[in-house]
Amino acid sequence: MRTLAFYGKGGIGKTTVATNISVLFAKDGRRVLQVGCDPKHDSSYKLVAREQVRTVMGLLQVPGTQTLTREQVVMHGRMGVDCVETGGPEPGVGCAGRGITRMFEVLGEAKVLESGYDVVVYDVLGDVVCGGFAAPLRRGFAREVYVVASGEIMALYAANNICRAIVTHARNGVALAGVVANLRGSSKELATLQAFAARIGSRLLHPIPQHEAVQEAERHSRTVIEHAPDCAIAHDYTALFGEIQATTQEDCCIPRPLEDTEFEQFVLNAMVA
């Protein structure tokens, strides 16, 4: 079973990337589980009707509930992708990180990860800001980490911090499999990302440019692969999938994150290069 985690700055497009990759694995004949690790529970909205979404944390809050079954936890999404949503407290109430930790406990209790999946894709909230959000790394659930980034400074800053978390948890078999360029169209963006990937000892995977079909598909609560399979951006996702599909242990590495002063200098150099 391959286990992939998509990390990156909040709003960088992790869910869009992760969901299209999940669909492409399913179209390739793999049995796929996508796990949304976000209290907003929006990882599966392109695959499961919004009114049918249920979350682990929501189910646990039902009075009298002690344990959950696989049938309660797993939602069967379109395109052959099963989905699990962590859920969590209302904004400003409780600890979302604790919710993620509890969700992994439930996955174990319900034996969800022992159900014959070929690929598990973890879609993880924002930056690694606490032990809860680092749970896929800390517990060794996700072995291949893909960092989604643009050429924007804060996206690179988040990517660098995520690399620090990978180093911390490398003893659990976690490694960086590559940087996914979800482009914003800024000047020198692709060159900056290529330079960043090289500096941390990794590789830049097939870039995903901006395309109106992505927003169009999201308005219909669909993935690009499902909504517009013949458009240019669908071919870009397919090319990215091909690189991820072909990834081996030799392609993965323990990254070399930049120290703060090194990062600042890198940014300055990238801006004037």
How would you describe this protein?
- There is one protein chain.
- The protein is of the alpha/beta class.
- The chain has a single domain (2-272), classed as P-loop containing nucleotide triphosphate hydrolases (Rossmann fold, 3-Layer(aba) Sandwich), CATH 3.40.50.
- The chain has eleven helices and seven strands.
- The protein has helices spanning 14-27, 56-60, 70-73, 96-109, 135-138, 153-168, 189-199, 212-219, 224-227, 232-245, 260-272, and strands spanning 2-8, 32-37, 75-76, 81-85, 119-124, 144-149, 175-181.
- Strands 3-4-2-5-1-6-7 form a seven-stranded mixed beta sheet, sandwiched between helices.
- It is globular and about 60 Å long.
- It starts with a strand and ends with a helix.
- 47% of the residues are buried.
In short:
This protein has helices at 14-27, 56-60, 70-73, 96-109, 135-138, 153-168, 189-199, 212-219, 224-227, 232-245, 260-272; strands at residues 2-8, 32-37, 75-76, 81-85, 119-124, 144-149, 175-181. By secondary structure, it is α/β, with parallel strands linked by helices.
Provide tags for this entry.
single chain, 273 residues, alpha/beta, Rossmann fold, 11 helices, 7 strands, 39% helix
